[in-house]
Structures are given as C-alpha cells and as structure tokens.
Structure prediction request, 96 residues.
Amino acid sequence: MDALISFLQSPPGRMLRVILGLGVIVVGILFLQGMAGFLVAVIGLIPICTALSGVCVIGPFFGYTFEGYRKTGSEHQVLPDHDCGRHLVIRPVLLE
Prediction:
C-alpha cells in the first residue's frame, strides 16, 4: 500500500487523479441524464479538488493521514518518495 499512497501523492499521481476526475465529469454531463448526470459530475470534482490540494482521501483507510504520512505510534513518518521533497515529520500535540 506504500507504493499506491506514495504514487497518489506524487505529481504524476495527482495529474492522473485530475484526468480521471475530468473523465467522470464528462461521463456525467454527456452520457447520463438529469439528476444522475449532475451527481456524477459533482462526484468527479472530488478527485480534482483532492489532487490540487494534496489530500489523499483513501489514506486513512490504510493507516495514513490525509497528507500521505504513515501513522505510527506517537509520531507520523514520511513516505520515502513523498511529493516534491517536502519531508516533514508531524508530531501530534497532546492537549491536557
């Protein structure tokens, strides 16, 4: 799963999400009628928005944060080939 999340957060993965989102929008507008087509087109906006904002919505289902960091115990680790060299380690803050 590391490879998939890492790819989705990379520039080519983001570009693929934008292209797939545009494809879903086209299908919704051109091939479906009425409310169904509108809803499919709106759903197509989700991968575009997440790709442009750097969010990976499937990450939390596989033990990652929305930003693509692996959740491990008390700190988050960056994937080896994470997006554009932005290697940050985010440590959770405990509120007392």
Summary: The chain has one domain: 2-85. Confidence is low (pLDDT under 50) at residues 81-89.
